[in-house]
Structures are given as C-alpha cells and as structure tokens.
TrEMBL record:
Gene source species: Halocatena salina
Keywords: Oxidoreductase
Designated name of the protein: FAD-binding protein
Oxidoreductase recorded as keyword: yes
Stored NCBIfam families: bact_FAD_ox (TIGR01679)
UniProt KW Oxidoreductase keyword: yes
Domain FAD-binding PCMH-type: 17-185
GO cellular component, one term: membrane
Amino acid sequence: MREESSAGVWHNWSGSVSCEPHRYYEPTTEADLQKIVARHAGDQTIRVSGSGHSFSSIVPTDDVLLSLAAYTGVTDIDTERQRATVRAGTRLEELNEILATHGLALANMGDVDRQTIAGALATGTHGTGIDLGVLATQAVGIRLVTADGEIRTLTAADGETFRAAQVSLGALGVVSEITLELQRAYRLRERTWTAPLAEVLDRVDELRETHRHFEFFWFPHTETALVKTLDRTTDSPTRSVPFDADEYLENAAWGSLCRLSAIVPDASPQLARLAAATLSDGETVGPSHEVFPTQRSVRFNEIEYGVPADLGGDVVRSIRDHLAGDGQDILFPIEFRYTQGDEIPLSPAYGRDSAFIAVHTYHRKPHREYFEACETIFEEHDGRPHWGKMHTVDPERLRSCYPEWDTFQTVRRSLDPEGTFCNQRLRQLFDV
C-alpha cells in the first residue's frame, strides 16, 4: 500500500475541484482499506477518490484521501448466473474488456467509460434507455468497510441498507467490491442523424419507445439537433477496434472551436452554427462495450438534472427560450437522455421514469450565470440533481424532492454515526 503524508494537490478531471489532503493512501487489498479506516475513523474525515470524473465537491478533504487507483480487477465471474464481482477501483473500460472475454456485458452504461465502478454507482451515473435503470440498478451485492472497520456484505435481503448503498455518495463507508448482474455479450447498431430541434422534441415519446437507447444533442443558437439511437443487432461489426480516427479528429476540431470561443466569447453563436453545420449522418455496428462510450478529450464543466420523463421536452424548450432572450455566449451542446425509474433512495430517477438534461460549458469559460439560470428551470420542472455534476440545491429542497431522503439519512447515521465519511459538502447536505 502506498502511503504519503502529503500527496500535493488532488484535482478532478475538469480542474473545477481540488484539495490538498493531509494524508494520502493507495490501498491494494481489502485489508488495507480496513487498516486505513481503523486508523483514522472518528478523528479525521476519510474520502475516497475514483477517476475524478465528477464535477461536484463530494470528494475533496483536507484530512484523509484514499485513492482506488491500485485497487482494481475482477475477483469472480460466474458465466452461468451472468454475474461478476469487481474491486471498487476498476474502471469501466477495464471491466468491459474483461467481461467481453467471458462473453458477458453490462446491460447499459453511459457514454464515458473512464469512471471507476464504485464512483459510477455512488453518484447515480446512468446511460440512456427508458427501460433501463441507472448503473447502480445492475448491482446485486456490495461489500462495504464501515466506520468501525468491519466489512458488511450487502444484498437485496438487507433492504433499506442495500438500497442506500447502491447510490451512497461514499457517505456510508468505503466500498470494497461490487457484484453485478450482467447480460450475454451483444452488439449494438448505432445510428446518428441531424434534424430540426422542434421535430425531435415532437418525436421524443416515439423515439424513446421504439429504440433501446435514444438521446439527442442540441447546439444552442441553432435549430439543429443530433439524434443518436442504439439497438441490439446480430449483424457483423463494422468496426473492430475501440479507437476511431474520425472521432479523434472531431475532438481535435471541437477543441479548437472551444478554445476560440474562450478567447472571443461573442463568436460562440457563430461557432455553434458552424459546428452544427458540419454534423453528418452515420451508422455503425459493434460490441456494446465499444459502441456505448465516446472519446471525450475536450474538458468541460457540467450540471445535469433528472425531471419526470414527460417534462423533458418542456425543459429543453425553456432553456432554448432563455438563451434566445439572454444572449449568453454558449457553444457546448445540451444532452438529453432517458432512464427508467428505480427504488434507490438517492437516485435522481427514484420512483419515476426520468428525462436527464445535461448542460455543459468549456472548462476555461465562466459557467455560473448559465448554470444558475438552467437550475431555476430544472427546479420549476421538479428536477433532481445528478450527484456527480455541479449543483447548488440546499438540504431543505433535497429533502422535498427525494421521498426517501430520511431513509438514507437513517442508514447513514447507523453505519457512520460520527460522519467519518462526510466531507464539508456532505455535512452541509446531510446536516451532519
């Protein structure tokens, strides 16, 4: 186990969040996790970092930061039951490759595969698909090192405790391993095409019901949307490797536009129209784990909210109207996805099928005014924040929009009565 009295400054992927912990660890075994917790619980805050792909302030601490970078790998695969147990620090890209060699795959995932499995679950990370839940719904077992240094193995039989652990923000303890329910490996056909935003919004109900996965991106200051659908297929792959040269070049060109918009903000509307004009239709077939993710080399900041599924289109219209009247220099597209409802207390999709709308800005551009305006619109439509993205929602409102907010707090207090795993941000949210 690597241990340092000071590891310098930790920061997330976009550079929006940072901290300088007093003590830094990179454990390699479950016993290491127990030792770290036993050494510091009750005296110092312990937080866990994954890949740093979250934008919210739920990781930073001045006390103890535990990195999962060296705690990776699959410990068990049951091909008959279609289950796998994986260490918490394993990145999705690594997990997917291992599963593929055993003829297995995740039922769904988002369009980024650099996150750790534990971080993706803890923040309620999701993909798209009205009949598919957030990633945490695929977890059927969670091994957790609690504040007393003991290991709890949680399953659905543990009721509220297990449900709370599925999306926990890291506030219940240190997740050691996760057992996932999987599917036989499958292929997806990806289709992309451009269409007028108004037409897409009129068709969202149809598109979400007729495709396994449906999403679209809208470029502000334009009437253009890029639609993307994924459906199962048995057709032969049209690409056999995860590296896509066209995708790489597109990222490079997009990065140039973003840098220019940061230098000349007033040019953003024209640059958005230029970007939208270069979009083209496309179709590809490949293994699901190669089709789901897209390369994201351009750094950005982001907020994302889940709203009742039937209100998603109204939210996008409201954001469009706001931008039309406000004149903000926005370049990054808005992303729109669907997720099936679930019974996880802190899942933004709790109790309802949801439309998720993500709003981005280039990481070198101001975002506060734009994000706050969008948050107002989200809240007007009963929105719930994605825990891995930026948000300014206060505890009082969180309690009102999460029906089982108090259920989670009861579990948290029972497992961590002194708030060992709560940093300053979580103490504010949970009133610790």
